[in-house]
Amino acid sequence: MDSETLLGDAALAADVIDEFDEPSVEDDGSLPPDRYLDRELSWLAFNERVLDLAEDPATPLLERTNFLAIFASNLDEFFMVRVAGLKRRIATGIAVPTNVGRIPVDVLADVSAKAHELQARHAAAFRNLVKPALDEADLHIEVWSDLNDEDRDRVRELFASQIFPVLMPLAVDPAHPFPYISGLSLNLSVRVRNPKTEKVEFARVKVPQVLPRFVQLPDDGSGRTRFIPIEDLISNHLEQLFPGMEILEHHEFRLTRNEDVNVDEDESENLIKALEKELLRRRFGPPIRLEITDDMDPVTLELLIRELDITEQEVYRLPAPLDLAGLFELGKIDRPALKYPTHLPTTSPRLLPTEPNAEPDIFASINRGDVLLHHPYESFATSVQAFLEQAAADPHVLAIKQTLYRTSGDSPIIQALIDAAQAGKGVLALVEVKARFDEEANISWARKLEKAGVHVVYGLVGLKTHCKIASVVRQEKDGELRHYTHIGTGNYNPKTSRIYEDLGLLTADPQVGKEVTRLFNELSGYAIEKKFDRLLVAPRYLRKGLLRRIDNETRNALAGKPSGIRIKINSIVDEAIIDALYRASNAGVKIEVWVRGICGIKPGQPGLSENITVRSILGRFLEHSRVFWFKNENDPQVFIGSADMMHRNLDRRIEVLVRLTDRSALREIDRLFDLAMSDATMSWHLSADGHWTRHAVSEKGTRLVDMQAKIIRDTAARRRTR
């Protein structure tokens, strides 16, 4: 189906590089030209806030190792997509300026400088802060020189039996060209000399990704848990890989490649086959970053730069060990005292049976009134998952329709859809196979759904289906067909639902049900879209709907009426939305923005944004929900949904926001904003120059409120007092 049939004048260009496109608004000269913060530097500032948590001694120790790993993993993706996109624009001569009016080559220079600074700080945080704290907790990451003779004898046995058989040394000589270096793989460069001919050769040893990154050392009776990086272990057994050769030098290096995917959907007769072909090509994207240990000799470095066709500016010298994303393994160690306290999500009180000892009935609960869910404080398993599982098993359910953007292949959500189809129900799954870095997994379980009899639709040409909606049609006892609907801010993924903070609405409201059903029909078939009442749908109506409501608050403020805007978002860079907020601020509208990641707004700048406050909260859960709150003369209009304020969300994705009407839900949203924006809550504050300042301790020296910990306590208390 052509997306233009459904969505009118939407941008149809494929997501080559998601946000590298024209600004969403033309500058009329009424606002200063330098009114946006750079989005690339803003993203790096977000990852710097992650690093803040790793450096904070108040963060539980094994959570600090996790934050170090998250920082590393985040930065990998930033290079694979964002830096790769900048380089591609420069290489192809695309001169469209960024949303701050600078050309890509200047942005890349600033990004490179900041990335070098952050990677050095990241390595220092591990070496000088986290590793010593691990040592104090009897969790030791050793190096070969730390081991005594007895340790080394036992480790040699371990190497010979479990590691040596997996290694594949590759020589480089006239008969063996320089090997392909896969993206994000950890490698050893080795220079050896033949003692008979005195000829010096180069070889590469890839560190096997199928083995643990940190090898646990045998118990030495000290009670300490000890590890050694696998690359250090391999480095000290190179004589077994190159017998008879003299080892001259060996160093670690790691390459990052451009791994973005570009499929010309308009030219593809079969999207799945075209995407599979492109995924194979992704493995061979051009290099964009070379990480090396700071002791690498000039001869080896010169060879790598030449063979990998990379520049000196793209080389990052760091102390060993490289690739600290491997620290995720340490986070799995069973030391509860070194982690956040165990959190068991509660069942939403509105989903509990009204009669003692009765079985939960999701449909009966929804019929009593709308249910606002807050994950992971409230259980995904006993709400959304139970909703779909009960729908699959209920003989009165006739049809289930659902969008799927990211989930796990073994997900009970997938199994529920399969069970429903095998039970003879009509089941439609709209699978977004273009979800970045999940493409292969999505293709795999989409085919599994098809084999089970589920009607699978692979989205729309030129648009990603990013909305989170599920619809169940059930025949009630009186013969009436009733729509039960879920609209959420997060993916239908039981695993990430335990660490992603998200909101969801379960409702039997007939208006919402009809509108979601219409939307599914438009996504899977041919239909002419009509306007919605309770929904805002991108790309045609969402931007317009939000701008209209921002303008309404502006007019109210100018007329002396109550006004106010509160936004919770992952990222905000869209120029039209930001400019509307600036104009609202100048009219006197108090605006609170709660952002997790990228923010293009310059808050608190006189004459531009003195009424705008921006806060960011990071912690054990990833703040992922999107909320839009408009005071509307003390009759608040509040929306939740899947859309961030970015070009891709507003112009090139199917996104859905739903307006909340239940009074208790509206009060709950107010409480969340009050807590998040309070000066008593631990958060980062953004200034007009783009600098984020962490506020973690009060003027009296006491720790500020950890918002997520407080919500855990408050949610558990509400469950107990029911």
Describe this structure in words.
This protein has 722 residues and is α/β, with parallel strands linked by helices. Among the domains are: 178 residues, polyphosphate kinase like (2-Layer Sandwich), CATH 3.30.1840; 184 residues, 2-Layer Sandwich (Endonuclease, Chain A). Helices cover 35% and strands 20% of the residues. Strands 14, 18, 19, 20, 21, 23, 24, 25, 26 and 27 form a ten-stranded mixed β-sheet that branches. Strand 19, helix 16 and strand 20 form a beta-alpha-beta unit. Helix 2 runs parallel beside helix 4, helix 3 packs antiparallel against helix 4 and helix 11 runs parallel beside helix 12. It is globular, with a radius of gyration of 27 Å. Catalyzes the reversible transfer of the terminal phosphate of ATP to form a long-chain polyphosphate (polyP). This is Polyphosphate kinase. Pfam families: PP_kinase, PP_kinase_C, PP_kinase_C_1, PP_kinase_N. Its cofactor is Mg(2+).
